[in-house]
Design a protein that fits this description.
heterodimer, A: 358 residues, mainly alpha, two-stranded antiparallel sheet, globular, B: alpha+beta, Alpha-Beta Plaits, 2 domains, three-stranded antiparallel beta sheet, two-stranded antiparallel ribbon, 23% helix
Chain lengths: 358, 158
């Protein structure tokens, strides 16, 4: 079988046979780093063209259709354009913070890759507090936005950064609470155990209505956390030109752009892992034949299929709903999402204690 | 805020958002609805909507006759002085002097295609054409004289 975990084991065995343990570890880390960076580049290219095509079709437009077959190489052309552009630093900017901010953004996105199970038994780091780690690291992304906004020495950037701070701090609460719903049902923070608990059914189906509510709150909250429309207060083209990255150009801008899309991928991957069973195939009760047929589809395909489905869902939101005002945004969180997800967490706890889920 | 109103608010919001998503989902799956015109490629088969306004023209019939009486209603209606009517005196067969237009000068570079002149015209002498490829290398070429040289007013138009 050619599975990701098989390939990883082969590489590990070959390295262990040829090098001492220290060098094996170092080489494996380098391979993992290169693989993550490669995944980043590919994700950036795919998600940008996907977003442009999806948005075009939803707005009855054609979208990019000139570069490459059906315009599929458009994002590659854009990348080349961004690489050859000058990365300008404004005269009044805080040079160190200004140049550091895009890297902080991309490093946070990279750190988040660690506990994600891309396929069955295939994880960079299966730490026992995986879910806590993800929610802790994802809140760091606000620092890069605040750095960029403050260092740009620009009113629009600062306003965007401040808004983004208020937004991410608020929405983390309901994102965390909806993640907690699944943690309560599973009884573990470890990603591999959460995946394993969904072998015979995904939490979205096993958890009945409370899990569905948690899923919807999670999707809304992570859309806000990744600063995407309808919650893109940090950028808000029509009000703040481009918000925190107004002053950025060239590759430094591209890093912010890439970090946004990679963050979208990561939160969708986490959503898929928690609610849709990550790399686990779809199993319906006692339908043996159906379950067997589903088992033949590789786990990595299941994972990426679910993740891209959630990404499509988030894009669907983006190109359907108008942007919220900052007060409406905070109202939505503090008056609606937070109380609902708190009550929902109580319900889930009751369900987990009484064992009402399958 | 009562609990009933709260639940009603949430329900109403979810319903209206889903309605919006249904609409965009419909557009996403039905590509025949796409309205984009790939302009330079489909120049021959360009499908312009009826209300599209490109420039003001004055139609002439086959005898080189137009319907403009020179009443200046269009000149007065124009908000930014795009149209100027220049007169000449003509002699009627009875030997009386009659005012007629010499030139109807139209500054395309000033025109905003607001359609007010066409609405103001009492005798339907001018109308909007659908041509839109107006770029030229010399600004003076945008100053147009709408009546053809040697044209006359149509019989019966007063």
């Amino acid at each position: 079988m050619w599975s990701f975990s098989h390939i990883a084991n082969e590489i590990h065995e070959w390295l262990s046979a040829n090098f001492n343990p220290t060098w094996t570890l170092i080489i494996e880390m380098v391979i993992a780093g290169v693989a993550v960076i490669g995944l980043f580049a590919i994700l950036g290219l795919i998600l940008v063209i996907m977003e442009r095509k999806v948005s075009a079709w939803m707005q009855i437009r054609l979208g990019p259709n000139r570069v490459g077959p059906k315009g599929m190489l458009q994002s590659l052309a854009d990348t080349i354009k961004l690489i050859v552009k000058e990365g300008l630093t404004p005269a009044g900017a805080d040079k160190l913070l200004f140049n550091l901010a895009p890297f902080v953004a991309i490093i946070v996105a990279m750190l988040l890759m660690a506990p994600i199970a891309f396929a069955g038994n295939f994880q960079l780091w299966d730490l026992n507090i995986g879910v806590l780690y993800v929610s802790a690291i994802s809140s760091l992304s606000v620092i890069s936005i605040l750095m960029a906004g403050w260092a740009s020495n620009n009113k629009y950037s600062l306003l965007g950064a401040v808004r983004s701070g208020a937004q991410i701090v608020s929405y983390e609460l309901s994102a965390g609470l909806s993640v907690l719903a699944v943690v309560v049902l599973t009884g573990s923070l470890q990603v591999s155990e959460i995946v394993e608990s969904q072998r015979y059914g995904w939490w979205l189906f096993k958890g009945h209505i409370p899990a569905l509510i948690a899923f919807v709150t999670f999707i809304i909250a992570v859309t806000a956390e990744t600063n995407r429309a309808p919650f893109d207060m940090a950028e808000a083209e029509s009000e703040l030109t481009a918000g925190f990255h107004t002053e950025y150009s060239g590759m430094k801008f591209a890093l912010f752009f890439l970090a946004e899309y990679v963050n979208v991928f990561i939160v969708c991957a986490i959503g898929a892992t928690l609610f849709l069973g990550g790399p686990m195939p779809l199993h319906i009760g006692q339908w043996e034949g159906f379950n067997h047929a589903m088992d033949y589809i590789p786990s990595s395909l299941w994972f990426f299929g679910k993740t891209f489905f959630l990404i499509f869902l988030i894009m669907w939101f983006r190109w359907t709903f108008p942007r919220l005002r900052i007060d409406q945004l905070l109202n939505l969180e503090w008056k609606y999402l937070l109380p609902i997800s708190m009550i929902n967490l109580l319900l889930v706890t009751l369900m987990a204690i009484l064992g009402w889920h399958f | 805020m009562g609990a009933g109103k709260y639940i009603k608010d949430v329900w109403g919001a979810v319903r209206s958002l889903l309605k919006g998503m249904r609409r965009t989902g419909y557009y996403f799956t039905h590509h025949k609805e796409i309205i984009t015109q790939q302009y330079p490629d489909n120049r021959e088969t360009l499908n312009l909507p009826e209300r599209f306004k490109g420039e003001v023209v004055m139609p002439h019939n086959e005898n080189n006759e137009h319907r403009c009486t020179g009443c200046q209603a269009c000149e007065l209606a124009c908000p930014n002085g795009t149209i100027k009517v220049i007169f000449k005196n003509e002699l009627t067969p009875e030997g009386k002097k009659k005012k007629a237009i010499d030139k109807l000068v139209y500054h395309l570079e000033l025109c905003t295609m607001c359609n007010l002149c066409i609405e103001a015209c009492p005798s339907d002498a001018i109308k909007m054409a659908q041509t839109f490829e107006h770029s030229v290398f010399d600004r003076n070429k945008l100053i147009k004289i709408l009546n053809n040289p040697g044209s006359k007013i149509m019989e019966g138009v007063e």
